[in-house]
Amino acid sequence: MRRSTKFILTALLVIAIAAIYFLYPELLGFITASELNPVFSAQPIPFAQQEDIHFFEEGWILCGSPSRFYQWNQAEISPPLMRDDLDAENGEVNIVASSENYIVTDTNRIYNTQTVPFNLVYENNDFIIEGIKEYEDYLILLVKEKENAPMHPCILVKGSDFLISFDGIGDANYISVDGHGDELSLLTLSLNSPVPITRVFHFKNRNELYGVLSLENEFYYNIYRLKDKIILVGIKDILCYNVEGDLQWSVPHESEGIYEVLSIDGGLLFYFPEKSQIDDVDGNVLEIDDKGYSIKAFPKYLSNLGVYKSGYLALESRRSLVFLSRQGKVIRKQVLDKPADLVKFHDSKEDYLFIRTEDGILQLYTSEKQEEDKK
User: Fold this and answer.
1) In terms of DSSP bridges, do strands 311-316 and 302-308 run parallel, antiparallel, or are they unpaired?
2) 292-296 sheet: strands from edge to edge
3) Are residues 303 and 340 in contact, defined by beta-carbon separation less than 8 angstroms?
4) What is the pTM of this model?
5) Which of 78, 182, 218, 301 sits at 20 to 30 Å (Cα–Cα) from 118?
6) Residue 351: CB partners within 8 Å, gap ≥ 6?
7) Cβ distance 311 to 268 under 8 Å?
8) Bridge-partner residues for 122, per DSSP?
9) What is the pLDDT of residue 7?
10) Which among 281, 332, 272 has a CA at the least distance from the CA of 302?
11) Which residue has the higher pLDDT, 347 or 317?
12) pLDDT band at residue 348 using 50, 70 and 90 as cut-offs
């Protein structure tokens, strides 16, 4: 009897594990993952509110003035630039903008950080580079002629040192831009008419204008480009248009601009931390793809939501890390040693979490225990 009972229990356990593996694979990685441990450096590493973090193969950078460079073991190093490039930076690198694989310095020089030393790909002293967006074959640079001048986007094809402008938009003011493949959509606002006009200019082959969407007396402050659709974000609504200019759907959110957005699986995820319903449907997450949208319920009041392993990671009440499944279910939580306001990680080093504490110190967490903990 005991042997039969033991066999049944073992069989049930095997079935349960198999069900988790095949039906909920995202849970397995989190359940088997070990607790993350704080790694303390010899000297505390300051991490100011206005600074950001940029990762490269051999370490990471705290982007500020001056920017500071570190190996993965938290040892500070000299900027990994060629001697001529370091001289051009006057011996001190001040990063003003970055994307996944590029940094922009206050000398209007752009470096590719995929190799060490970093490779200079562009420089220009005729204008100021304020921002950068990275796509597969090109970069979009946000530039202005001088301080306090309006900003406008230009295209820098990878491997080229020639900037391409967006022609055909007249005196429209730049608001936002996004691309998918070699097609781009540029969101602008025109004020030289009786009522403000929002215009979206569609480009193919990066800068060949092929369509314009005009919306009178409506204001949108962000745009996202999917394959053949655009997503416009307004103060109260999120709208979807196809590139022919037909409205596909509209969803009210009334979040007063309090939301986070992620790129997921060729689509988008909007998280509204303070909402309980979207368009009279219970939930606070709007998932969007080319086919439409769906609404899901995630825990409220999270921040720093990010795609992590096979699910999501976020901060809760500045005191805990929260690990979520793809459906938004809490899998586990971990209380932090100190309150935090930022969490960052890199896809190639998912077991390293970079936390900025509320008192402005960088705290590294890893699944590896420190030597003193192993004694």
Assistant:
1) antiparallel
2) 260-264, 267-271, 285-289, 292-296
3) no
4) 0.88
5) 182
6) 36, 366, 367, 368
7) no
8) 110
9) 54
10) 272
11) 317
12) confident
